[in-house]
Amino acid sequence: MRTALHALTDELRRLKTAGVKMVAVSDESVAALRRLVQARSRGVSVTALHDTPEPAESLAAPRAAAVPLKAYEPPAPVYTPMPPPKPVGEPLPPPPTVTLPAGDKQTRWNALLELVRDDATCKAHVRPGKKIVLGVGSVEAKIMFVGEAPGAEEELHGEPFVGPAGELLTKMIQAMGLKRTEIYIGNIMNWRPEIPTPPGEAQVGNRPPTEAEIRYCLPYLRAQIDVVNPDLLVALGATAAHGLLGFSAFKALGDVRGRWFEFGGKALMITYHPSYLLRPPIDNRKKRLVWEDLLKVMERVALPISDKQRSFFLDK
Ligand code: URA
């Protein structure tokens, strides 16, 4: 009997584990169970019959009735967890070493574009359907603007400054008497810094890049400066200025804006970011400050400046 009981209880356990709620019990098994119950009532130790008995009460049901097992608990649903969003500030590999082929500016720039698009770290930070962003404009430009990082529009189109801040930057360039295609516009970052967002949802808003992210992307900006070889750089906003001057170079952008610095052998003007001018209160006083910085830039590259241009944004 012991062997039969072992076999029976083993089978019942196996079925329970497999999720079976009810079992039909054979005459023979019911008889065996009855004997077990009777033995128990006579004081014979159950463990003497079976080391790990099933609860006799529930198993000793009348023949032919389906015998309920212990309350059935469905197996826990199996979820395939989504990979967690990358935390801000995760370690990055060492910055890339950028080596470009010999050749003319356009050939070297094209090679650089391929390099950055092939960069595994850049690719890993770009969401599906979005693009890595390198600079845009003329490789013969005398003036190179340097912004912060791509935003929603930029990562969609793969081009810097194509959103609202870009529209204003284009107007600023035109106010200088130039076309957007005559200058060069780059960014400190080649990808849009991620804000953890539930899977499948679009990122809302932007965050400034971390120092590590800037350090990673900086060789690509240096390579653009190397290829284009502009007369001067204009850093737009605190992030670009920090990226080029170093994080400990200044506390408030107001301390360095409107002044000349140097980066990679190039004169560097610091000014406010166009998005600062778009932020309320929108007033001509802020615009005038930026315009004064751009007048200095125009003087330095010997662009003609009319009286009208000199007096832009002086009215209230
Ligand atoms: N702001 C930036 O700094 N860069 C862009 O490309 C767009 C917005």
Note the topology.
Layout lengths: L1 H16 L4 E2 L3 H15 L4 H4 L6 H4 L7 E2 L36 H14 L1 H5 L11 E2 L5 E5 L4 H6 L6 H12 L8 E4 L23 H18 L3 E5 H9 L14 E4 L2 E6 L2 H5 L5 H17 L6 H4 L6
Parallel strand pairs: 4-5, 4-6, 6-8
Antiparallel strand pairs: 1-2, 3-5, 7-8
Helix pairs in contact: 5-9
The structure holds uracil (URA).
The site of uracil has 12 residues, from helix 8.
End-to-end CA span: 104 Å
Fraction of residues in H or I helices: 40-55%
Radius of gyration: 36 Å
Biggest sheet layout: 6 strands, mixed
Low-confidence stretches are 44-62, 80-85
Which compounds are bound in this model?
uracil
**Looking at the structure, what is the overall shape?**
elongated
Beta strand %: 5-15%
Strand order of the largest sheet: 3-5-4-6-8-7
Q: CATH topology of the largest domain, anyone?
A: Uracil-DNA Glycosylase, subunit E
Number of domains: 2
Count of separate DSSP helical elements: 13
The name of the CATH superfamily of the largest domain reads Uracil-DNA glycosylase-like domain
**CATH architecture field of the largest domain:** 3-Layer(aba) Sandwich
Q: Total number of β-strand segments? A: 8
**pLDDT averaged residue by residue:** 84
Q: By helix and strand content, what is the structural category?
A: alpha/beta
